[in-house]
Amino acid sequence: MVLPLVLAFGTEGYLEPHDSGAWHHFGITRRAAAEAGWAQGAGTELAFAADVIDRYLWDPAWLYEGGMARVRAAREIAPALRTLHMDDLTTPELVEASFERVLTGTRVAIRWCAEAAGEHAVAAVRGVVGFALHCVQDFYSHSTWINAPQRRGITWDERIDAGVEYADLEVGRYQVRGAPRHGAIGLAGPGRAAVRIPLRGGIGVPAGIAGIGRGVTLDSRWQAPTGVRTRGIAHEVSGEEAFEMASELAERHSARWLRELALEAQALGLDALWERVMHDDDGGAHAQSRVAQDPRLRPHLFLGAGASAGREPDPDAWFLRVTARRRDGQATSRVLGPFPAAGGRLAQDVTDGARAVARHPSVVGAWAFRRGGSADLLRL
After folding, report:
1. Cα gap 103→211, rounded to integer Å
2. Cys staple from 265: which of 101, 163, 189, 270, with CB 3.0 to 4.6 Å?
3. What is the spatial distance between Cα 182 and Cα 179, in angstroms, rounded to a whole number?
4. What is the DSSP letter of 309?
5. Which of 265, 306, 316 shows the shortest CA–CA distance to 109?
6. Facing residues of 334 across strands?
7. How do strand 318-325 and strand 331-339 relate by DSSP bridges?
8. What distances in angstroms separate CA 295 from CA 59, 124, 145, 335, one per listed residue?
9. Which CA distances in Å does 163 have to 82, 171, 356?
10. What Cα–Cα distance (Å) separates residue 280 from each residue in 13, 256, 274, 285, 314?
11. Sign of CA pseudo-dihedral 118, 120, 121, 124
12. What is the DSSP letter of 213?
């Protein structure tokens, strides 16, 4: 009975297969991919990547099913994955910075995949784009965006053209204190409303065992009633209506974002690679496992660079990605930084230090990249 409490967010059936329609990041992403012109097989792999983040973080049964390689990978990639949930952002400015971080990180990652991922480039691009879409989609169910009636038909990327105000925007707190809370599931007890977590078909956790704490999350239909009560909008919209609203906005934003990434890839001269990403029908869950578990790949490391719950990242800061061999012969990859920029370029002392790192005998690859309005990427 404990496991469904761990990964119950974002699903209408913890024991349902991924393609059943019960897992919301999977469904939102697959529909958005189809709308953006992706082939069915490619869209399914993208959807798996968008959904699997939560499994790496919170599903011990799934981790151990994949053996020690999956368990080890989960431990190594967890810090970066925790930056992709649109939680714990205390100001609208930090929300803006997070969207920009994910967009520019994806742009850099696509370039890196084209250069460094070799035969795994297609799967690596799908993996990093799927991880990024998870963050985009979480915004609508984790924030107070839909609390304001004038924002309910508007996506985040339409806000400026629509002229909507969002100074009151808040995001649920998950790892930091304060209100509004994200919401938590656990055993029934004081401060938690009884909830029946769905498992498969009409079967769920028996009443009286599980409880849900106050929180704004709209990650599933069965959580949404608590979400609208916590938000104070239950007199305006039902939980079901709020859930559908957040899901529709997430899907629309995801589809538009995929179309924009196609233009980004074209601008970078990577249209041939992007065509394969959208239409090649091989890969699937196995390919995505390789992308996450092989330290020489893991393009999502570019997404987490510069993430901080306490301050806005410097858009001109540079970072260093290093892939090296450990003493035991296993590979490891890290992103180091941020490093200061001088006139938009890496400071000379930082450049010299980065090149010294890149020349170390254990290093098999090193790249410097800037997290700003461009996709600057330098192989050292």
Report:
1. 36
2. 270
3. 8
4. S
5. 265
6. 322
7. antiparallel
8. 21, 12, 36, 12
9. 31, 21, 49
10. 30, 21, 10, 14, 37
11. negative
12. E
Residue 5 has pLDDT above 60, yes or no: no
Record the tokens describing residue 281, joined without a space.
Answer: 């029908």
* Residues 156, 256: Cα–Cα separation, whole Å: 11
pLDDT in tens, 212-255: 667 788 888 878 888 888 889 999 999 999 999 999 999 999 99
Please determine, for residue 311, whether its predicted confidence score (pLDDT) is greater than 60: no
Say whether pTM exceeds 0.70: yes
Q: What is the average pLDDT score of the chain? A: 83
Alpha-carbon distance 236 to 354, whole Å?
55
- Phi, psi torsion values for 266, nearest 5 degrees: -65, -45
As a whole number of angstroms, the distance between CA 69 and CA 103 comes to: 29
- Give the CA-trace dihedral at 39, 41, 42, 44, to 10 degrees: 120
Looking at residue 2, its pLDDT comes to 47
**Measured distance CA(137)–CA(45) in Å, rounded:** 17
pLDDT score for 274 = 97
Please check the confidence at residue 121 and state whether its pLDDT lies above 90: yes
287: nearest Cα among 149, 125, 59? 125
Q: Which residues of 185-202 are buried (b: 16+ CB within 10 A; e: fewer)?
A: beeeeeebeebebbbeee
The tokens describing 297, both together, are 């790949």
What pLDDT is stored for residue 324 in this prediction? 86
**Using an 8 Å Cβ cutoff, are 55 and 9 in contact?**
no
